[in-house]
Design a protein that fits this description.
With 240 residues, this protein is α+β, with helices and mostly antiparallel strands. It is built from 7 helices and 4 strands. It has a 4-stranded antiparallel sheet with strand order 1-2-3-4. Strand 1 and strand 2 form a beta hairpin. Helix 2 runs antiparallel to helix 3. The protein is rod-shaped and about 180 Å long. It starts with a helix and ends with a helix.
């Protein structure tokens, strides 16, 4: 008959001697203790850490112990889930044998893998940023490839900008009180003035209005058209 209590006491002494600085007994009935597991340091001295809590059941090691993540540092929730799944797997594979050292060792290796993954992720992120910087620099050096489409688009925008600039300058000149142009300057600038008089006559037609009152007393004049010696210039001398 298996003496479970004896096997548990022997394993407990062994675990205490293997992990003297990270082993802590929490209670004796039932036997409960913690082991703190820390990963190896990464290249930037970063580490991940977890404290595992184990509790012996009556028929351990024929039945697996109870365990939980008592505390942790720098672990993501997904990492914690992976650790719990790992403990379950290792416990099932080692039923019938004392297994605390095996479980702690498996967790230690997993923590080292997590640190390596963190390192690889940083390096991958660094390479990605460097590649993006190189591509951006290459694009800036090469400039934009000119095609018919983007040239026509640029030309249309350029002409629109120039027209807007011209209108803006004209408006600024008007607001600044620019002197009015002389007739000659207007004539030289606006060639429509060349034909303005002709157009005026054409628009008016041949209708000429005559003020008849200017000639209403002409019948009162005594004009002798038959007198060969008649001189209109002498009329004034008679009156004198």
């Amino acid at each position: 008959m298996t003496d479970y209590a004896e096997e548990q006491r022997n394993e407990l002494e062994a675990i205490e001697s293997i992990y003297p600085d990270s082993f802590t007994v929490l209670s004796e009935d039932p036997t409960s203790f913690t082991v703190t597991v820390t990963s190896d340091a990464g290249e930037n001295d970063e580490t991940v850490e977890t404290t595992l809590k184990f509790t012996y059941v009556e028929k351990y090691p024929d039945e697996p112990p109870l365990w939980e993540i008592y505390s942790q540092e720098n672990l993501e929730d997904a990492d914690v889930e992976e650790l719990l799944a790992l403990l379950q797997q290792q416990a099932e594979e080692n039923l019938g044998m004392v297994m605390i050292f095996t479980l702690v060792t498996a967790v230690q290796e997993k923590l080292n893998e997590i640190v390596d993954t963190m390192k690889n992720s940083r390096e991958e992120e660094k390479r990605r940023r460097e590649q993006e910087a190189e591509e951006a620099e290459k694009v800036a050096f090469q400039g934009t490839v000119v095609t018919i489409e983007n040239f026509l688009a640029w030309k249309a925008q350029f002409e629109l900008d120039m027209a807007n600039l011209k209108r803006k300058r004209q408006k600024e000149e008007e607001q600044a009180g620019k002197p009015k142009l002389t007739g000659k300057q207007l004539f030289e600038r606006d060639h429509n003035l060349d034909t303005s008089d002709i157009q005026f006559l054409e628009d008016g037609g041949n209708n000429v209005e005559v003020d008849e009152s200017l000639f209403q007393d002409i019948e009162d004049l005594e004009l002798d058209d038959d007198d060969p010696d008649f001189d209109p210039l002498e009329m004034g001398s008679y009156e004198d």
